[in-house]
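Q: For a teaching handout, I want to show students what a protein-ligand complex looks like in token form. Below are the inputs, and the small molecule is adenosine-5'-diphosphate. Please produce the holo structure.
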Amino acid sequence: MNRLRNTDIKYLKGVGPKRAELLNKQLDIKSYYDMLYHFPTNYVDRSSVYTISSLNGDMPAIQLKGRFVTFNTQGEGAKSRLVALFSDGTGTIEVVWFKRIKQIREAYNIGNEYVLFGKPTVFNGRWNIVHPEIDTTTSAAAMQGLRGIYPLTETLRNKGITSRTLFTYIQGILSATPNIAETLPQSLITRLNLMPLREALVNIHNPKNNEQLQRAKFRLKFEELFYIQLNILRYSRRRASATAGFRFSRIGHYFNTFYSQCLPFQLTGAQKRVIKEIRADMGSGQQMNRLLQGDVGSGKTLVALLCMLIALDNDTQACLMAPTEILATQHYETISKLVAPIGINVKLLTGSTRKKERDAIHSQLEDGSLHILIGTHAVIEDNVQFRNLGFVVIDEQHRFGVAQRARLWKKNSIAPHVLVMTATPIPRTLAMTLYGDLSVSVIDELPPGRKPIETWLRYDNQRLDVYKHIGRELQQGRQVYIVYPLIQENEKLDLRCLEEGYELIRETFPMYKVAYVHGKMKPSEKDYQMSIFASHEAHILVATTVIEVGVNVPNATTMLIENAERFGLSQLHQLRGRVGRGGGQSYCILMTKHQIASETRHRLEIMTSTTDGFVIAEEDLKMRGPGDLEGTMQSGIAMDLHIANLATDGQIIQLARNNADDILDADPELASAENAVLRQQLTLLFDKKIDWSQIS
Ligand code: ADP
Ligand code: MG
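A: Here is the structure, written as tokens, with adenosine-5'-diphosphate included.
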């Protein structure tokens, strides 16, 4: 395996330095190993040959056997194409090339027999195949069973590198490597009846039949997921045994007084349950690492506050960290107001806190007179020292990098309890992989009296109706958000859309005041604009996604999202969560241009059909794959997966986890000879990367 990893792909027969560079740039293939682990996304069945007369309806990629009858070059210059007629005795089909015309013309002869691969489609009433793969009948006969179809890029295709080329490269590697060392312990292979590694690699590219393919897939997926779980578990076990935590045994003055005198409303059943779960952790003597999931508006802040009070009752300090200044300020305002009657010292620390105030905060933290610190990542700066930090709440963690969290963790001699809160619902198997040993609590109930938000999909030509709706809401004293996308690659253009939109809105609603925020503004200006919207001085807020997280203006009842097709599902869900926070009926309007891809329409229709964050997260995961989900990028796991799919391989994840657990139970340090291979693989796979499992 090491030899495969260390051999540069340029040394493979038929590759050479130029193609190596292409493969490297286009597919990130640098070594023999990378090539071998570039798995097919699809297969063609080489065992059956179709006849042209039997083509019908919507065909998959198929195989035809016959002869070219004519070749014709049509059109001029960049528009020229080569059209051939191909006959198999039962009928003829057109074969078309737009690129590499000269080479193609020279490579194939009229009258010789060839085997074509491709997807036939009907064009102008005739069957046709564009850019098929072509084999001579002898080379086709050499191939049997199912053959892999590989992911490629347009650039590679233009340079004449086809799926077929990659297949040949991979076969070259396999035949040059009769021995590939097994990467799982033999006992595990036997116990689960897994296909041995080399056999699995052979069968993933060129399976004898579907059954062999399924076994090969299973083996490779299992291995991939198994090592991820083994890695997570070995760290979490080490940490659990090494990391004692504060034992919060008391419920005291602060909690009790607040609960009986200051609680603004009855807790929901879900809030109560979650607080119990957290309390149990905090009393256990081991450091808590808990993920609190709860949809937008489910009341996570109050849960966090009650738990902070338990920390205070046990003579420690608490800290709440939020991803943005706006959100931190909002938390600060909510919490300081709530606890004002019981004499708790709460302070806000952000990037714009003045030096004098900052110095005061530092000294109060050190002498212990500051009970609760709320802030942005300013709270993890090196000169912030707590006297005795017992409990840390991290809101909307996916905005915090792994390294930032680790710094917080280093602030104490005893590890503080950590509660990570998120409104981004994470499917269970994904959470298991991303957050490893975090225990999970879920608030699955909204406070009573909330009306479900109505969500509409509207097109540009219905804009007037949409504005009428907005006008009505404004007239009733409601407020409105209007959101524009702002996405990196196209920042200038996006900003222009936002500015034009702002002007248009001001013209359309001249009687109302319009506030305006985007991420490129100075924080002070942004805060000013947000504050006039929050105080109802402004009626409409035109914004980019900076308002996505946490902003709380219960009087705002309509969220209009422009170019909704450019947002991901979880982002749309977050944005929608900005409305529906008061008693009034709220609306979310997704605007798009009329022509959108059916996949896009499907995505937007999920939004109109459900407000359940978990359903949306599952769909998001299915449609986009976990690599795109927020949070997975920083972990680096999803990107490294060659074959397993965190969205659909939940059962294999569970199996992998159970087996990893059993192995660690029997041999915690993986010291046995049998487990040597596990240690080797762990080092190879993970030890150079960031240790993301130490994320508390
Ligand atoms: P999120 O989970 O999105 O952070 P918040 O903590 O901001 O939600 O709560 C959303 C709103 O619901 C706030 O205005 C809060 O005061 C209110 N709220 C929280 N818990 C309850 C409850 N048990 N009953 C009624 N309203 C509640
Ligand atoms: Mg919140």
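A: Two things your students might notice: The mean pLDDT is 86. Residues 431 and 492 are 36 Å apart (CA to CA).
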